[in-house]
Amino acid sequence: LEKILIVDDDESIRLLYSEELRDEGYEVYEASNGKEALDMLERLSLDLIILDIRMPEMGGIEALRLIKAKNPRIPVLLSSAYAEYKGDFASWCSDEYLIKSSDLSELKQAVKKHLKH
Amino acid sequence: MSSLTLLSKITEIAQSTVEFEEKLQNVAILLSRSFDCGLCNIFLLDKEKQSLVLKISSSPKMASRNSLSIPVGEGVIGIPLVDKKPIIIDDIREMGDPKPSIPLPLQQFSSFISIPIGDSDFTYGVLSLARKNTIRLRRGQDRLLNIISQELAGLIRNFRVYTEAKKHITELSALADVAKSISSTIELDEVLRRIVHITARVTHARSSILRVVDGSTGKFRVGSKYGELPDFCLKEPLCRPSRKSNQSYECQRVANGGAISAISVPLSFKGKLQGMLCVHDKQVSGTNKSTQFDPDDRALLGAMAGMISSALENALVFNQMEKLTEELKITQERLIESERMAAMGEIASTLAHEIRNPLVAVGGLARRINSAIEKGLQGNSPVSKYLRVIVGEVEKLEKILHELLDFSVDKKVSYARCHVNTMLEEVLGILRGDFEKADIKIVKEFSNVPPVYVDRRQIKLAISNLIANARQAMGDRGTLSLKTYGLTEDEQPMVACEIGDTGGGIPHESIYNIFNPFYTTKVYGSGLGLSIAHKIVSRNHGKISVRNEPGVGATFIIKLPASAAYKEVKESWKKSS
After folding, report:
1. Do B364 and A102 count as a contact with CB atoms less than 8 A apart?
2. What CA–CA distance (Å, rounded) separates B48 from B56?
3. Which helix (H) or strand (E) holds B373?
4. Cα–Cα distances in Å, from B85 out to A48, B124, B241, B534?
5. Of the partner residues B354, B361, B523, the one whose CB lies closest to the CB of residue A16
6. Does the predicted TM-score (pTM) go above 0.80?
7. Other CB atoms closer than 10 Å to residue B535's CB: what's the count?
8. ipTM of the complex
9. Would an 8 Å CB–CB cutoff place B347 in contact with chain A?
């Protein structure tokens, strides 16, 4: 099973994403901030990371930089409530920028697309 | 009548309280009787016309003749003024040629005595005696007549000095009135109104108009007017002084069957033409008749022009300043508005984030419930778990909305005497249950502090926000310290209330942002709590600050003015508002 890590400080979002992705047949892990995500990156051989931007302790942008420094090949999808940062994601070296929505089909498609590569 | 008696009678007349012309009249009658002649006339010099005008006559018939005027140096009346010595003609019929000419109304007389009325400096006119028969002057009577002539000169001189002084006093008091009236206000419209009003009054004009030079077009516009102006005065100035010269200008124009007299005076300040003031149609005081303005009116208006100009300049400058201040105020308001808009934009963006997360969860989980129902609910269905999350998220949304309203609505503050210790106890009463559930100790150190003068409901909200903040920072373990004490700041008695936690303090990089709306380091909450507390405390004329010990905890300190100082505080609020 492909391993996906969901990083979001909002527990409800984590619950929604993990249930949905588990139904799709992935092995899902959760972290509530950037620091926890980096710890898990060390311990698990992850296939994809879904990363929120605004989080306490360590935010998404900082975490993205550190994740890509450690493992440049792992796909990282930014998932944020902020629509206005979408234009900047390429310069942050993320693979996709998704605006949070209750319709998860876009998220699931992006996950599928980046796991194929 | 002896010479002495005559002189004493003349002195008596001169010192009497009757009007000037009546005095002259009495002297003329007295002289005609004393010298037993049919007629005694007094002619006064009109310097401009260089003629002698009959002013007084002992004969009522003669006096009723209008304006008998004789050129200076001509005939029995005119020659003595030039020669400065009397003419005595016993009988003109017996005189050899050339005979001096006799004015027509006097041709019935044959004997004449004409004496110049004057002193060493000035000649005022001629005293003339006429008789049908020969006048025989007794010895010494020619000297007597000279003395009388000097007495008359004194009488005329005194009258002229008195008239001049009276005129000066009137002018001065008019000028003082003008100065007082126009300098007692600086409001432009009022200054303009007063100028036209008072200039018309002091010159007895029926109407007046003040045209001012428009700063932007350089053309005259009507600043203010008084009375009923003739139509043509409204359209254009009746007389227009040269823009370059500061001379006033006088003119007459025929209108409505009568001549309208006018004076126009330019108003300028430091060489810059500001406007033009015109008065029209002089009224004879106490009557409804019109008359012409005289040179005195023109001089008076000219004298007033200077002070009117400076009053006008002051008012214009003040008006300009008021306009600029108004513009500045508008610009400032626009700036504040644009800053507010920018802040609103930032808040809206943050708010969108705060709302989107719960909405995504609510919507996403609702979809999952829907598909679970479609598939047919099974025993281990997670639906109830999803529903619990949905309810929780909706509560979160409601709380955001509630806090946002609290923050954005500028509620009216209703001040009352309150006790900080009581308010702290009341807030604790509501939150105590939550603290007891967690392992959080509450340490209270309340002093006997004076009451404060604040909005009770608002301050309680601020306190409860700070306590909720401390609770969240500590998680499930820690100590909440509440402390109150009195202090003096800037000589003003204050009451301080400290709310401290052991939640590890505020990260160094966040310390400057803690009171900004939506700034949060927490997993829960909108980030408005501290911001609201800050706003409330400021609105209640207090101060809020934080004492931070990174790694240990943070203590928020609210300082409110004690109500003992309420009177002074209220004064300072009034001043600041």
Report:
1. yes
2. 20
3. helix B295-375
4. 137, 13, 47, 105
5. B361
6. no
7. 19
8. 0.85
9. no
